[in-house]
Design goal:
The protein is an alpha+beta fold and 438 residues long. Helices cover 48% and strands 6% of the residues. The chain has 18 helices and seven strands. The strands form two sheets. The chain has a four-stranded antiparallel beta sheet. The chain has a three-stranded antiparallel beta sheet with strand order 5-6-7. α6 runs antiparallel to α7 and α9 crosses α18. The longest helix is centred in the middle third of the chain and has 27 residues. The protein is globular. The N terminus is likely disordered. The structure holds carboxymethyl coenzyme *A (CMC). Carboxymethyl coenzyme *A binds next to loops. Pathway: Carbohydrate metabolism; tricarboxylic acid cycle; isocitrate from oxaloacetate: step 1/2. Keywords: Transferase, Tricarboxylic acid cycle. This is Citrate synthase. It comes from Acidisphaera rubrifaciens HS-AP3.
Length: 438
């Protein structure tokens, strides 16, 4: 194969197979912003070859109008709006409306949407008994995978995936019930009674209420912490075609119901390279233990044989500071201030680690910068969340992104079942060998 060459217009790409007269000219597709893509769908029929891209680092899997990331510049846009502006001026439910519908709501549209979502916060009472099936120390993500998947068995009226109204109701149910499911996973771990949702509270406020309150006492949610929670939810709401979102799309491409798809997304989010990183950051900080141990730890990270990574650093797309990490860092100081935590050893350790890593050629050369998870764990710990809840909170926030992307896929006329190909490297065809001849 002699590589590729662009035509004069720059709008096609021609690929010629070395040693043959076979070539194919493929269209280049432009997005609104960001890199163009070569549409390779005709490649196999024309030349009999596939493309190879493990980890999909160079592959666009769909058209999407929801989220845009410029990883080199550290830009994140939801429906065109910079994350910094949404973090400053918006609320999580307004961001949900934006992600689902494409535009910011007018005031009456927002109140109708808020009422609509908050009317779905209760879980079917029968779903309560699912919790008793888990061990008391079950990880909240295990509980969430199970309970969200089980929603498929409870909300049959929203299962017609080809009906837009049905899809809308499922979206409302998932966004509304996820905080209840997550808060109850914690209550089950803690051996405390489940608190029913309160629809007179805001979304983040209600979550903090269900998480912290007990029936024996009156509980007032701290408005500064509710705002911080809301902000954390905004920052995690969507992130284009990441692993869990691609999992949701892949599951959805088969026609699976939305609850099953979101359960698949939760499973994919759980890993430490993705949503599980916030939990891993805190574990890492406590293992390091003290600022004086940082140089030793950094040497281990740089040692190729150690398999140790600096958790909360690096990103497949961002080769610059993750814009969400900057907002997180600010919020971290605000939350610690509000809680009267003057010297948090973990925060001191994190800041020192960040300073050292940002100066170290290993990280500089590889463009490894702090990501959203570097500070989120410290904030969540200060707010009283056990580490096992961190990824569950990420799942609560990302549900709107998953369901918006699922909806977009369902409305896409080009949508087909997701079915990658492979480079087969196993044995060629051979005959079965009877047991006594092996
Ligand atoms: N610590 C040390 N070295 C790293 C790290 C890290 N955190 N991340 C990447 N590298 C090195 C890696 O060893 C490789 O070096 P070399 O070129 O010498 O082999 C180079 O940087 C490129 O790494 P990669 O594995 O090809 O990068 P990737 O795009 O496949 O991985 C990542 C991205 C996020 C999985 C990875 O950076 C990582 O494991 N980070 C730590 C986990 C983490 O914080 N994840 C949260 C991501 S943000 C939230 C989310 O989206 O879920």
């Amino acid at each position: 194969m002699d590589g590729t060459s662009h035509t004069a217009s720059g709008k096609t790409i021609t690929i010629t197979l070395d040693g043959t007269d076979r070539s194919v000219t493929l269209p280049i597709v432009d997005g609104t912003i960001g890199p163009s893509v070569a549409d390779i769908r005709k490649l196999y029929n024309a030349l009999g070859i596939f493309t190879f891209d493990p980890g999909y680092g160079a592959t666009a899997s769909c058209h999407s109008a929801i989220t845009y990331i410029d990883g080199d510049e550290g830009v994140l846009l939801y429906r065109g709006y910079p994350i910094e502006q949404l973090a400053e001026h918006s609320t999580f439910l307004e961001v949900c409306y934006l992600l689902l519908n494409g535009e910011l709501p007018k005031p009456d549209e927002l109140s109708k949407f808020e009422r609509g979502v908050m009317r779905h916060t209760m879980l079917h009472e029968q779903l309560r008994s699912f919790y008793n099936g888990f061990r008391r120390d079950a990880h909240p993500m295990a509980v969430m995978c199970g309970v969200v998947g089980a929603m498929s068995a409870f909300y049959n009226d929203g299962m017609n995936i080809n009906d837009p109204n049905s899809r809308r109701i499922s979206a409302f149910r998932l966004i509304a019930k996820m905080p209840t499911i997550a808060a109850w996973a914690h209550k089950y771990n803690a051996g405390q009674p489940f608190m029913y949702p309160r629809n007179d509270l805001g979304y983040a406020e209600n979550f903090l209420y269900m998480f912290n309150a007990v029936p024996a006492e009156t509980y007032k949610v701290n408005p500064i912490l509710a705002r911080a929670m809301d902000l954390i939810l905004i920052l995690h709401a969507d992130h284009e075609q990441n692993a869990s979102t691609s999992t949701v799309r892949l599951a959805g491409s088969t026609g699976a119901n939305p609850f099953a798809c979101i359960a698949a997304g939760i499973a994919s989010l759980w890993g430490p390279a993705h949503g599980g990183a916030n939990e891993a950051v805190l574990k890492m900080l406590s293992e390091i233990g003290h600022v004086r141990e940082i140089p030793d730890f950094i040497s281990k990270v740089k040692d190729k044989n150690s398999n140790v990574r600096l958790m909360g650093f690096g990103h497949r797309v961002y080769k610059n500071y993750d814009p969400r990490a900057k907002i997180m860092q600010r919020t971290c100081h605000e939350v610690l201030g509000e809680l009267g935590i003057k010297d948090d050893p973990l925060l001191d350790l994190a800041m020192e680690l960040e300073k050292i890593a940002l100066d170290d050629p290993y990280f500089v050369e590889r463009k490894l910068y702090p990501n959203v998870d570097f500070y989120s764990g410290i904030i969540l710990k200060a707010m009283g969340f056990p580490t096992s809840m961190f990824t569950a909170l990420f799942a609560v926030a990302r549900t709107v992104g998953w369901i918006s992307q699922w909806q977009e896929m369902m409305e896409d006329p080009e949508q087909r079942i997701g079915r990658p190909r492979q480079v087969y490297v196993g044995a060629p065809q051979r005959d079965y060998v009877p047991a006594d001849k092996r």
